[in-house]
Design goal:
By secondary structure, the protein is mainly alpha-helical. The protein has one domain. The strands form three sheets. The chain has a two-stranded antiparallel ribbon with strand order 1-2. Helix 15 runs antiparallel to helix 16, helix 18 packs across helix 19 and helix 19 packs antiparallel against helix 20. The longest helix has 34 residues. It is a multi-pass membrane protein. One of its GO terms (cellular component) is membrane. Keywords: Membrane, Transmembrane, Transmembrane helix.
Length: 496
Amino acid sequence: MDIVETIRAKARRSDVAWFTFLVLSGLLLTWLAIVQSLVFLVLVAVVALTAFTPWAIVRARRIDLELWQWMLLAALSGYMLLNYGFENLTLHLGLPFIVSYAMIYGSLALAVHRHPSLMIKAAKNPAMICLLILIFQTFIHLIVDLPKYGLWAIRDSTIVLDGLFLALGLLWAMKQSNLLILMKWLMGFFILDLAYSYTLPWGAALQSVSPKSGVFQEVALVGNYRGNVLYLLIGALFCLLLANYVVRWPRWVLMLLAVAQIFGLAIEQARAMYVGLVLALIVLALAGKARDSLKLASILCLALVPLLFLTVTGIEIQGRIGTVNMDFLSEHMKSITGARDTPGSTNEGRMDWYEQAYQKYRKHPWIGVGFGEPLLDVENSQSTAIRMPHNSSFSILVRLGAIGFIFWVIFHLYVVKTFIYALRQRKRYDKQIADVVLWLFLCYLVFMIEISVEAGLEFPSGAVPFYFFVGLALGLIRFQPSARRITGLANDAQKA
C-alpha cells in the first residue's frame, strides 16, 4: 500500500470514529433536550443536528457505507451494549416513541427504498420465507389481540416481528467490501462491551444516577447487563478466530483480551455461557481447528488464574448473583446438573413455568393463544411480573401453536443445514471467509443456548442481533458462492 492509500485509509478510519461519536452525541443531546423539557437545549439540539446532517452524509459515503447501514450499526450498538435500557429509551409525545425501534425500522425502510430488487431477492431465501409465514400468522392474531390487550399485544409479538431484520443481515452480506467495516465495528464493540461488563459490581450505583424512561415502566438507560455475557463469549471467539484479520496487534494482546472476556463470564455468572464455552471447544475441534480449540482451552486456564487469586486472598467482588471466586463457580456449575442448594434458579422452578405455559397452550394447541396474554402468573424478587417461560422456542409454540412452531423448526433446520454445507465446503472458500462463517456458526450456537434457557427473543435487544447475524451468515454462504475464489478481507483492506 503506497503513502497515498495509507493516508486515505487513515482518513476513513477517522471518519468512522467521528461519525459514530457525533451520531451518538446527537441522539443523547436530543433525548436529554426532550425529556428534560429545556427549550434552549431543544433549540441547540435542532441547530446542531441540522448543521451536522449534510456533513454526516458526505462522510458516510466516503466510508462506503450507506445511511441505512449507519443506522443499523448504531441500533445494534445500543441493543448489544445497553440492551434493556436502550430498548426502553422512549419519548412520550402523546404516544410512546421508542427510539430503538425508530432507528432499526428506519434502517429497514431505507434499505428497502435503496435496494428494492435486492430486498426481494433476500425475501426469497427459505429462512426468510419461514419467518414471513410466522409474521403473517402473527398479524392474524393481532387483529383480535390488539383491541383486547393494546400495547401488550405489540410488545409480545416482537418475538416474531423482529424476524424482519434477518433481511438486513442478508443484504449486508451481498456486498463483500462492507464485511471488513463490520468486522472493525465488532472489534471496537467487543472491547467496549468488555469494559462495560466489568462495571457490573457497580450496576446499582449506575442505575441510580442514570436517565430513565420506558413504555410500561421507568428503566435506567445504563446499569443493565441483560445479554452482555453472551458477547463476552463470542467476543473471545472473535479475538481467537478473526481479530488478526482486522487489527495488526501482537498475538499476546489478542490473547489477553480473550482471557479478560472469559474471566468476565465469572463476573456475569450465567450458566448458559459455561455450556457455550464447552460447546465451542468441541465444535472447534470437530471443524478441523484443533489448534484453536487448544488455544481456547489455554485461555480458559489463564482466566482461572485471577479467580484463584481472588479466592486465595479473600478479596470479594460481587458478581451478578454471588461473590466472584472459585467456590461460587464450582457451586454454580453444579447447579447445571440440578443439584440442590446451589446458586441460580432451580430446575423445579423452571419446570413450574413450563407447566403453566403448557396449560395455556392446551387451550389452542394448533393456532396458539396469540399475543398480549401473560403466559405465566409469576413475579420475581423485585415484584415484577414474569410474563413468559425462559425459553423462546417454547414461547413461540404457546403463542403460535403447532402450526407456527412447525415453521419455526423448519427455519432452524434450514439454518443448520446451510451451516453444515458451508463447513464441509470450507476448503473451497478463502481462509478468512471460512473463519467468518465458522465464527458465525459458533455465534448461532451460543445464541440458541441462550434463548433455550432465557427469554432471549422476547426482547428486541436479543432478537434483533440474533436475526441480523443469522441473516449475515446465510447471506455470506448464499451470495459468496464457492465456485468463485473469494479474495478475502485482506485484499479488501488494501483497496479501502
